[in-house]
Design brief:
Largest sheet: 7 strands, antiparallel
Radius of gyration: 16 Å
Low-confidence stretches: none
Strand order of the largest sheet: 1-9-6-11-4-3-2
CATH superfamily: q2cbj1_9rhob like domain
Distance between the termini: 26 Å
CATH class: Mainly Beta
Order of helices and strands: HEHEEHEEEEEEEE
Number of strands: 11
Shape: globular
Length: about 200
């Protein structure tokens, strides 16, 4: 399951240079298909909740800002597939700590589903009153995704931006406190795992 270290090296180099990084080589196709099927089953079983903004007492659902649904992964109750994903993220976290001395301690992840027409307006991932989120990560699980399907991750850099297509198996990571981003409206159901490496 462990990818060759060069994949981690490329991600780290791009994080250092640009503040964000992309690879399509982190997970095997068979693993990705199995993980997608698990997410679809959980969604059909009603295990997702509409996502909100803010944390704790400030958490609220604001559909004008984001309209996706999430299912948080519980580290104490991970399925076999989720355990494999979790372990890979722990190894990436340890690699980043060795490379950048970030002091990352924890990870948290959730499945995310964007129904047709869903979006998430421009934002930063770090909470105003909680500086724990340091590296944001997204793994896309969308089979046969086409450019016209929408749902791109738009990454902003000053006055410019880059759109990342949420294609099957693509992994994106970026600095949570620096990289503003949004999810463009999707024209069909969009699947991913999203999470954070935290101090």
């Amino acid at each position: 399951m462990t990818p060759p270290e060069p994949v981690f090296n490329v991600l780290a180099d791009n994080l250092a240079e640009k503040g964000w990084a992309v690879t399509d080589d982190l997970f095997s196709t068979d693993f990705l298909y199995a993980l997608l099927q698990e997410e679809i089953l959980l969604f059909k079983d009603g295990q997702f909740k509409q996502a909100g903004i803010g944390k704790g007492a400030e958490h609220k659902v604001v559909s004008e800002i984001r309209s996706d649904y999430v299912h948080w992964l519980d580290e104490e109750q991970l399925s076999e597939l989720q355990q494999q994903f979790w372990q890979q993220m722990q190894e990436f976290k340890q690699f980043l700590n060795r490379e950048f001395f970030l002091g990352l301690k924890d990870v948290e992840f959730h499945f995310a589903v964007y129904p047709e027409g869903s979006f998430y307006k421009k934002h930063l991932d770090r909470f105003q009153r909680d500086s724990g989120r340091t590296i944001s990560c997204v793994l896309y699980l969308n089979k046969d995704w086409q450019a016209g399907d929408g749902g791109q991750l738009r990454i902003f850099n000053k006055e410019t931006y880059v759109d990342v297509n949420p294609v099957f198996g693509r992994f994106v990571c970026f600095k949570s406190d620096e990289i503003e981003h949004e999810v463009l409206p999707t024209k069909k159901e969009r699947y991913s795992i999203t999470g954070w490496m935290k101090n």
